[in-house]
Specification:
The protein is α/β, with parallel strands linked by helices. It contains 7 helices and 9 strands, in the order αααβαβαββαβββαββ. The longest helix is centred in the middle third of the chain and has 14 residues. The radius of gyration is 15 Å and the shape is globular.
């Protein structure tokens, strides 16, 4: 099960090695067009902290993860940072943010969990808040190394987000292959 994968030191180490050299710098650059510097931002699924470190240069960023192993490492690596233990589906926090960011995290949610996450994102965003998320492009789902992965198309993402968010940018990009990923930036309605 996905939520168990990141709960061992071995799996966390495996993920950190696999993610080396990958970060969301380009996505964050695009986010800056829509979310001013100094804004409060929640990162969902901070993991090893590569994107948090980039986001932290421009935003008042709060990291989050549901893995205690990742949270312990983040607290050690970034002692002045704020990190919350949050599940991406429920986002149980009373804090409000100007923006919410995730990089290849929400694809681990099934349809029901994704709907819950979208509602909660809307609830914890300030008026005119902005979201920025990336997804694997495709159809269907699979279990990859014990993790649930749900693929999305532009149409499926529109269907999920358009009721609560105005889509500002949605485009394909290349992670490993041509157009294998989708970046979505949207504003709270």
């Amino acid at each position: 099960m996905t939520k168990e994968y990141y709960k061992t030191d071995k799996s966390v180490e495996e993920y950190i090695k696999a993610a080396e050299g990958f970060d969301g710098a380009e996505h964050i650059g695009q986010l800056k067009t829509y979310l001013p510097s100094g804004s409060t931002l929640l990162e969902i699924g901070t993991g090893p902290g590569s994107d948090w470190e980039i986001l932290h240069t421009d935003y008042d960023v709060t990291g989050s993860d549901f893995s205690k192993q990742f949270l312990e490492r983040l607290d050690e690596k970034f002692p002045s940072g704020e990190f919350l233990e949050l599940d991406a589906a429920t986002l149980l926090t009373q804090q409000k943010f100007d923006g919410i960011y995730s990089n290849k995290v929400l694809h681990h949610l099934n349809d029901e969990e994704m709907q819950s996450s979208i509602y909660r994102q809307h609830d914890i965003l300030n008026p005119d808040g902005v979201i920025c998320h990336s997804f694997w492009e495709g159809q269907g789902s699979e279990i990859f190394k014990g993790m649930f992965v749900k693929y999305h198309t532009m149409d499926s993402l529109k269907g999920l987000f358009e009721t609560r968010f105005e889509i500002l940018l949605m485009e394909y990009y290349n992670e490993f292959e041509d157009d294998d990923s989708i970046l979505l930036i949207a504003r709270k309605k």
